[in-house]
Design a protein that fits this description.
The chain is built from 12 helices and 23 strands. With 419 residues, it is α/β, with parallel strands linked by helices. The strands form 7 sheets. Strands 5-2-1-9-20-19 form a 6-stranded mixed sheet.
Length: 419
Amino acid sequence: MQRRQLLKAGLGLAALAATPLARASSGRVLIVGGGWGGLAAARQLRQLVPALEVVMVERNAEFRSLPLSNRWLVGLAGNEPLVYDYAAAASRHGYRFLQAEVIAIERERRQVVTRTETLDYDWLVLAAGIREDFTSWFGADAAAASHTRQHFGSAFTGGDELLRLKARLQNFTGGDLVMTIPPMPYRCPPAPYERAVMLAWWLKEKRIKGRLLVLDPNQPALAFDRVFRDSYSEQISYFPQARINTLDPYQKRLTTDFETIDFADAILAPPQQAADIAWQAGLVAPGKDGKTSGWAAQDPVHLHIPGDERVFLVGDMVDKASPLFGFYPKTGQIAARQGAIAAQEIAARAAGLAPGQSLPSSSCYVVRRVSPLEISRIDTDFRFRADGLIQQTVKQTHFAQAEDEDRRWATAMFGELGL
């Protein structure tokens, strides 16, 4: 059963031979963002349409996985399975990697502008991920937001923030460690609760005289609340429906509706939104009440943006997919599945064919207890209802005597992404 589930979790991509990188007459696909969605789109396009030039633009030189990063933060995983070189992956699979920061998209000209050059595209896959919105805490105070990101970053955006967070944890000697959870929706919903479990285990294992204060603005996570109370009652205080009213990152003090907390250190995750580039490109539209959702609108089946079938959005940055359930879960595998679907859409259009209809799926593994190891798998599938709306089904499986199912799933996915 576990082998079949791992195969289901993969993208089903075959190994690809490298192809020349010269501009092809069939056109160019630019992929902005080298996360799970961007990597899946790049590899799938090389398989489906070898005549297309595929260029992935990413500001970081290395891919650093967020899945398994909670293990890594507390010393339960090394660097080897989590960090991969983008240029090496591109060379193996025959697409071009450009390390650059994208600062603008000019859709009328079909151009992407980086800090060093302007690139033309025939199709664009935007897989830029998220940004963190500090305005609910600081308003227009950019200095306070920057200080918080630098000294108390959540590491939800990956990259160097993960390195800084691990360094802070290694230097933590005790006291109150505050961790906030963003309001829904946010990237990888179970991840903060898994991190809390890992940190509580770490405090206990290292005999650090500290306490983790988990401030959650959402409804109580009952399954994790039980674990917190049963296994880590001396290490965790969990506060559901706790909204931050004020935050002073310089004095290390915050207030909620109920109390004032002075902290020794903190992992502060504000609300999340679509990445900056989505706002620059005008992809985040206002809602019916004039207030924006903060997420980029797309056709939930074909994944292109409204009014432009040459620009596709994949991954965590997208808005609601269906009035029946709202957002696709913002998980790595959803992003990877959407990247593959976008590649199929582009391949069909490049051949002059009408694209088909495909829906993503997701398997998400989360550690619920470290010792003894307990893991849950959350499977989310989608289908079309008779009226054409997308319907969601969710199934949860608990492994009370786990055997590193999360590691095996992640390793399989990294292989499928060509890393």
